[in-house]
């Protein structure tokens, strides 16, 4: 085992603070990684605060990990020492069910193992995430980071990126489609980049006039103020897809009405009951579809990194000293980040 | 113009009663039809009672029409006098939008013209439905009834049939799929027949133990009592599709949980707000889809009749004397029909 450092929360009320702990002994198919960068996702905050009532404390968040390989097990075939690699939201799954065999490990019938707060399938320990100097992960759950990509700005591709890329591909967005992106945070701004790269005409829906210029800067062809009934009515039945990244309850019905017949509204952020109530007639009368999507499988996580390298896409990031992680959480709660904090892990090593 | 007879409601409170009226002068592309049979759909009751607040009185319901061609206009190419033909839920559309050009006239961007209570696009009159001895319809909205089909039992295929057939095809049900059918009325029992004919393994979900033997008689491979939590839990994540024919508010969440990842829940009956609230997490966490579907386009309406002839499928019907139409409505409200009333129009002619 190797002694590691990191930041963890001891309870829902406590702030994140430095701890030392032991990373597990590498197994034959494991890649040992020295972490350089780790993106900060809203899910990290939810787990640290135990918002979903499922946190095992202490919890060490972080599932947008970029680092370099420092050692490989004897069964590792795809990586060598020195490679720049990434680790996203999962570190294991059953590997043998129909989902895993289809490269959709996120839908593993036996449940995927989360990068943090998951239960290790071999030793039953609770997994610790990427707010750390090192990590040990089976090579199946490691991806290569193309040389062309800035590794810090690539970190959020492993969650915010794949979460928006995967549904755009799965639900069939293609050149010429009219795509609406709802929400302009970490996920939304990546959704715009991907939809544009796929050749779509992209409209950002935002509640605030103040965000229009920023939306245009992100590459949106059009901006609709979603609180303006006149603009929303003018957009009726004109979209092929809506990519809905909003993680809190909101009214889906005005957006459904903006879809053409056979249009698709994709949820990637909303996990709560739909309130106000969904108007079923909006689906039936126009054969519209309301679909969901969860991150992406390992082959597609590699694909999105390669796609980003090919199209020059990275996340807009603000680099973070890990000592400021608690302040960063407060700023994220206020939406005060464009668009993702990424921890520079040198700041941990220097501590 | 030709004088016609039929049954109509004068107001939301009145019963259906006989009236005489003038059918419109045939246009060059029109087919004149003597009606032999007309199925009775729940929608007929909703319009007669003005449940949806959109009825123009007097209203003459009926959109599952089977009859024989008595005359054709000079531009008619596909029908000749004597042909047995059908007319379903639509009698017109704009014919030039992308939906119409795709044979999806039910999603016409300018709105389809309903077989009854619709506004005629040429003369602005309100359309009268099939509870009548004759009707005049443009040939684009007429279908051929294959000789192999019993014409009376074929009538409900024009609404109950196409409404269930179309989404099973559109959403991609194929041999070996596990399909659940929710609701065992006019639509549900047709859904079972189609899903079986497509090679699926079919489970009927019913609230009542008393309906199990009837469900098996309809061809279901399995029956699940939806009010039995133990049975519902045992069915978790095991279905590829749910065909939900229930036309009133009901809890979708237990059914969503019965779908595999990538499973599809298809609404064909529900037009109201979803209550209890839809759990968005059930879509996101397993990439499930909630979709709708509305009847079917004209090419597919012909297709379903041909499919029925090929597979020996008809609707289970109870023949009705039109003088008993008001009693039939009362029985339908209690679910007391297996599975569709069909008016024998000889009883109108004999009156």
TrEMBL record, chains A, B:
Span of domain Enoyl reductase (ER): 11-343
Highest taxon of source? Bacteria
**Cofactor needs:** Zn(2+)
- SMART domains, alphabetically? PKS_ER (SM00829)
Q: Name one Pfam family in it.
A: ADH_N
| Protein name per the record | Zn-dependent alcohol dehydrogenase
Family that this chain belongs to: Belongs to the zinc-containing alcohol dehydrogenase family.
**Does the record's keyword annotation contain Protein biosynthesis?**
no
Task: Work out whether the entry's keyword set contains Phosphoprotein.
Answer: no
Q: Cross-referenced InterPro entries, in alphabetical order?
A: ADH-like_C (IPR013149), ADH-like_N (IPR013154), ADH_Zn_CS (IPR002328), CAD-like (IPR047109), ER (IPR020843), GroES-like_sf (IPR011032), NAD(P)-bd_dom_sf (IPR036291)
Instruction: Give GO MF terms, alphabetically.
Output: alcohol dehydrogenase (NADP+) activity; zinc ion binding
Protein keywords: Metal-binding, Oxidoreductase, Zinc
What PROSITE patterns does this protein's entry cite?
A: ADH_ZINC
């Amino acid at each position: 085992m190797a002694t590691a450092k990191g930041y963890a929360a001891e309870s829902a009320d406590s702030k994140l603070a430095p701890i030392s702990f032991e990373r597990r002994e590498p197994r034959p198919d494991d890649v040992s990684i020295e972490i350089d960068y780790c993106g900060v996702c809203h899910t990290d905050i939810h787990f640290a605060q135990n918002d979903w009532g499922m946190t095992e404390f202490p919890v060490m968040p972080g599932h947008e990990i970029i680092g370099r390989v420092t050692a490989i097990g004897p069964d590792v075939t795809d990586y060598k020492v020195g490679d720049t690699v990434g680790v996203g939201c999962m570190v294991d799954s059953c590997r043998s069910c129909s989902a895993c065999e289809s490269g959709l490990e996120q839908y593993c019938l036996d449940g995927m193992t989360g990068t943090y707060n998951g239960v290790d399938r071999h030793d039953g320990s609770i997994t610790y995430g990427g707010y750390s100097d090192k990590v040990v992960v089976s090579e199946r759950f490691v991806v290569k980071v193309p040389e062309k990509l800035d590794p810090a700005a690539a970190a959020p591709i492993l969650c915010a990126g794949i979460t928006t890329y995967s549904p755009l591909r799965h639900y069939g967005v293609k050149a010429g489609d009219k795509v609406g992106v709802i929400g302009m945070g970490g996920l939304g701004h990546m959704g715009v980049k991907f939809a544009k790269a796929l050749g779509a005409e992209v409209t950002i829906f935002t509640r605030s006039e103040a965000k229009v210029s920023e939306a245009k800067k992100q590459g949106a062809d059009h901006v609709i103020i979603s609180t303006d009934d006149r603009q929303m009515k003018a957009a009726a039945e004109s979209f092929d897809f809506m990519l809905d990244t909003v993680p809190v309850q909101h009214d889906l019905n005005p957006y459904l009405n903006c879809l053409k017949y056979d249009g698709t509204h994709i949820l990637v952020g909303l996990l709560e009951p739909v309130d106000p109530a969904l108007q079923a007639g909006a689906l039936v009368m126009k054969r519209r579809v309301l679909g969901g999507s969860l991150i992406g499988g390992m082959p597609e996580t590699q694909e999105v990194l390669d796609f980003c390298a090919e199209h020059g896409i990275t996340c807009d990031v603000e680099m973070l000293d890990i000592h400021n992680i608690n302040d960063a959480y407060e700023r994220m709660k206020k939406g005060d980040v464009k668009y993702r904090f990424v921890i520079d892990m040198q700041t941990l090593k220097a501590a």
